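Pinned message: reference record for Bifunctional protein FolD
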Amino acid sequence: MAANLIDGKAIAATIREEVAAEVSKLKEEGISPKLAVVLVGDDPASVVYANSKKNAGTKLGFEFELFHLPGSTQEEEVIALIEKLNGDETVHGIMVELPLPKHISKERVMKTVSPLKDVDGVHPINRGYILSGEEGLFPATPESCIEVIKRSGLPIAGKHAVIVGRGETVGKPLVFMILKENATVTVCHSRTPDLAYHTRQADILIAAVGKAKMIKADMIKPGAVVVDAGINEIDGGICGDVDFEAAKEVAGWITPVPGGVGSLTTALIYRNVLKGIRLQRQQQ
Ligand code: NDP
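Predicted structure (tokens):
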């Protein structure tokens, strides 16, 4: 194998240690950091995510409360719950599991979460801070893409980063987050002609599409850093957007799937709870 493997699990373990140390310090100051998760309905994946968040958070020393509401819950009741959590000083982070049932407006619910407790980084105010470069709470997956590069000791400033995908969750916020790191940025999407021409220019190639193994080895510049944010279900397992087995012979550094970008997301959500506490203190 030519490429160095970027070990997302090991990086996540380091971030968890940092987060746990900060939780201990806060507890000495009498603050018990707490994440509240709101789950409406019984979407099986959401139930699994909520429970795994609970386990991860508890291990890090966080308080955790799951508000699991029936699928028939009315929008006003969800809004009222979030407003109550916004005003609850013992709750430092709020996360709403998606998807919500169809009769509930995702946009309205997201806008109701206090921007200072929005650990998923979805509130329009936090989205605005990504553009303005101000401190805010930013989404975990694009943050993870940047962390795996930085923590591997690889430079971003001055490098040409090519992002494939402009989705609201990963690609679009990542454009501005990596621009802040002083990369030169190209964004590709489904209407980009000759995608391979662009991807071959990349010093840092980030895939955030949702199409299994679509980035082939001949689309990668030899020695490039390849970061795969894609999660695709195939043959009872998961794979990324990059054709890993072939790509690792060309790339200089590469993240696997699983074991790459996705390994960091829960740790980064909890790190956002701590960042939220700092931002909440500044507002007081
Ligand atoms: P979206 O579905 O919102 O966006 C996908 C993007 O890919 C769109 O911008 C689309 O272009 C582009 N695209 C689709 N087909 C092509 C193509 N053939 N060539 C070039 N671009 C194409 O995705 P998300 O941003 O929500 O997620 C992206 C990936 O990240 C998914 O695989 C998802 O599973 C994964 N993910 C991973 C997480 C993790 O923890 N690791 C968390 C969240 C998501 P257009 O805009 O023109 O339609």
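Pinned by admin. Summary line: Residues 141, 164-171, 188-192, 195, 208-211, 229-232, 261-262, 265 surround NDP (CB under 6 Å).
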